[in-house]
Specification:
The protein has 415 residues and is α/β, with parallel strands linked by helices. Helix content is 47%, strand content 15%.
Length: 415
């Protein structure tokens, strides 16, 4: 690390640490201001910031670091293995002296949440779902950066042809273990400039999200709704499964997200997608289609605890109070979405949360209040598509078990 990189890493981390906005957004703003930074320097700065966020509980516990520069010093020394002699010229004399006096001491017994690098409230919840050793394993995996998963647009190419193209170009890639149209890259090339991306042949999408679309299993000429479409990743996957036939509505309450979706939709070649901006889940656009829809996907807003490899800042931006608020929203959205379905229609409720209260508990409460819906075992629906994955009645994915984001999905059908 050179002095300029250290300076920008300290400044960027200082912008992120208040946790008043997502870390990726804060970094994006920082890089827009500092356009003098080239791709390599931006990569070093971003990797340093995310490294601190992934290891922050341990860094603070061992050293008491309470500023951006001291957190970075502790991270580079104790996690990256850089010597204090190498780091000292990059910071003030006072900070260098602090680092020498607060060097991490080995052999200290750690509280479980520090060892797992997870919020204490989250560890307490997970303790009801898995043993201590598995929490530690999960935590260690969540400290690592997530792999880059792609979904092949089967309207435009086959997975085998895309893998062959990557092999020709020396890009290490392999099929995802479960999704029939997923590819996992060994590295993270500049994909946004690759012709396979710019032509719509591949899209970035974690394998867990691809599998949620397989659970919905839309058919050609059906009427389908992606109820919380976001920037449209699952919408595009559903449209490809429908072979661009039928009608696929992408509901979203955020205009900026729909704006980001438009170029992706154009690249995809799909002609059956209809983006719709909603006021909320009770919008009149929803009520007009009540009882007319074949399949609805609800990828509900959630705590995002299954995505900590990508979004480690969520460890400080979420809390028990925010989860309680999200559960109310999840129930409201699920209730509104269910009214869209015709008899025999399929409803998939999904989150990227690890928490039972956002997952099984929400589904159980919904089924108790809506006897016209029945739970369909996820294992059976995946088996119908020759997907060799059995996590029981629900789709329950964990990074340390399955290699993808933490994810949950339940399939329900209206009688």
């Amino acid at each position: 690390m050179i002095a300029a990189q250290m300076h920008h890493a300290v400044a960027a981390l200082g912008r992120v640490l208040p946790m008043s906005e997502p870390a990726d957004l804060a970094l994006s703003h920082y890089f827009r201001i500092h356009r003098e930074l080239g791709p390599h320097d931006r990569g070093v700065v971003a990797e340093s910031v995310y490294g601190v966020l992934r290891h922050r509980y341990g860094l603070e516990f061992h050293t008491g670091a309470d500023t951006a520069v001291r957190l970075l010093l502790a991270y580079f020394n104790s996690v990256q293995g850089m010597s204090l002699r190498e780091l000292a010229p990059l910071v003030s004399r006072a900070d260098a002296q602090w680092a020498a006096e607060h060097k991490r001491q080995p052999g200290v017994e750690l509280p479980l949440h520090v060892a797992a690098e997870l919020p204490e409230w989250l560890v307490e919840r997970l303790a009801a779902q898995m043993p201590r050793e598995e929490i530690l394993t999960l935590g260690r995996v969540l400290q690592q950066a997530a792999p880059l998963d792609l979904r092949v647009n089967t309207l435009l190419a086959s997975r085998s042809s895309v893998l062959a193209r990557f092999a020709q170009e020396g890009i290490a890639a392999r099929p995802t273990p479960y999704s029939p149209f997923g590819i996992r890259l060994e590295s993270k090339p500049a994909l946004n400039r690759h012709t396979l991306y710019t032509s719509g042949v591949v899209e970035v999408q974690d394998e867990s999200s691809q599998l949620a679309c397989c659970l919905l299993a839309p058919k050609r000429r059906e009427m389908v709704i992606d109820f919380c479409a976001g920037a449209g990743g699952k919408t595009l996957a559903l449209g490809a499964l429908m072979q661009s036939l039928g009608r696929l509505y992408a509901y979203e309450i955020s205009q900026p997200r729909l704006t980001r979706f438009k170029p992706r939709l154009k690249r995809s070649g799909l002609s059956n997608v209809y983006p719709q901006l909603l006021r909320d889940e009770h919008d009149s656009k929803v009520k007009r289609l009540a009882g007319k829809i074949d399949r609805v996907l609800v990828d509900a807003p959630c705590s995002g605890m299954g995505t900590l490899r990508r979004n480690p800042d969520l460890k400080w931006r979420q809390s028990e109070a925010s989860v309680a608020e999200l559960m109310l929203k999840q129930a409201s959205i699920l209730n509104a979405a269910s009214a869209l379905l015709k008899p025999g229609g399929r409803l998939v409720y999904a989150t990227c949360s690890l928490l039972r209260c956002e997952n099984q508990d929400v589904v159980a409460a919904f089924l108790a209040a809506h006897p016209q819906f029945v739970l369909k075992p996820a294992r059976d629906i995946l088996a119908e598509q020759q997907i060799a994955l059995d996590t029981g009645d629900f789709l329950e994915l964990y990074p340390h078990r399955h290699g993808c984001d933490g994810f949950f999905a339940a399939v329900m059908e209206r009688c």
